[in-house]
Amino acid sequence: MNWVPPQTIGATISRNWPVSQVQRAVLLALLGNLALVVSAKVQIPFWPVPLTLQTLVVLALPLVLGRNLGVAAVSAYLLEGIAGLPVFAGAQAGLLYVVGPTGGYLAGFFVAAWVLWEIMNQFNVRSVPKALVLMLVGNGLIYALGTTWLSQFIGWGRVLEVGVLPFLAGDAVKIAVGALALPYLWKRLG
């Protein structure tokens, strides 16, 4: 069984690591998980809200690692947070946080990681325009689940104002970075 899909950036980067296939898969998933944890801690002053790199990493993980390892990295992140490790943005953690107002966005991370890999496999997303569309779809999934859940707490009337509009500018920057960087990496790694 091939634990790391051969057409991923992660497979290309790790192909010469002196470890077994299973160890390589575990290491890649752990590195993806670490990237997600760190991305939640990075806060860049931005308007109207500080910018974290979480969604950029979530959208990149399945493209870099493949579906199974990308989903494993996101799942580990969510389970760590549920278990009480302060991995979420703002050093938040716990089951109550996950089922709170932002829980839908966290669930969207998992769904986006799963769906993006499926789309990538169908359409060979290795160009900037295709990567841009893919990242927009993934971000849309995160918003869809996030705002639907958030509406249960604040009502539909305020969901766009509170749960979408403050994040659009930052997400546009992250999507642009991802859409430019991922095809560049694929090209450089050959």
Give a topology summary:
Elements: H1 9-14, H2 21-41, H3 54-65, H4 67-82, H5 95-98, H6 103-123, H7 128-154, H8 159-163, H9 168-189
Helix pairs in contact: 2-3, 2-4, 3-4, 3-6, 3-9, 4-6, 6-7, 7-9
Structure description:
The protein is an all-alpha fold and 190 residues long. It has one domain (9-189): Arp2/3 complex 21 kDa subunit ARPC3. It is 71% helix and 0% strand. The chain is built from nine helices and no strands. It is globular and about 50 Å long. The mean pLDDT is 91.
Give a quick rundown of the structure.
The protein has 190 residues and is mainly α. It has helices at 9-14, 21-41, 54-65, 67-82, 95-98, 103-123, 128-154, 159-163, 168-189. The chain has one domain: Orthogonal Bundle (Arp2/3 complex 21 kDa subunit ARPC3).
Low-confidence region ranges? none
* Proportion of residues in helical segments: over 70%
Radius of gyration: 16 Å
Instruction: Please write the CATH class name.
Output: Mainly Alpha
CATH architecture descriptor: Orthogonal Bundle
Q: Based on CA inertia axes, which overall geometry fits?
A: globular
The averaged pLDDT comes out at 91
Largest sheet: none
**DSSP summary, beta strand count:** 0
Query: DSSP helix count?
Result: 9
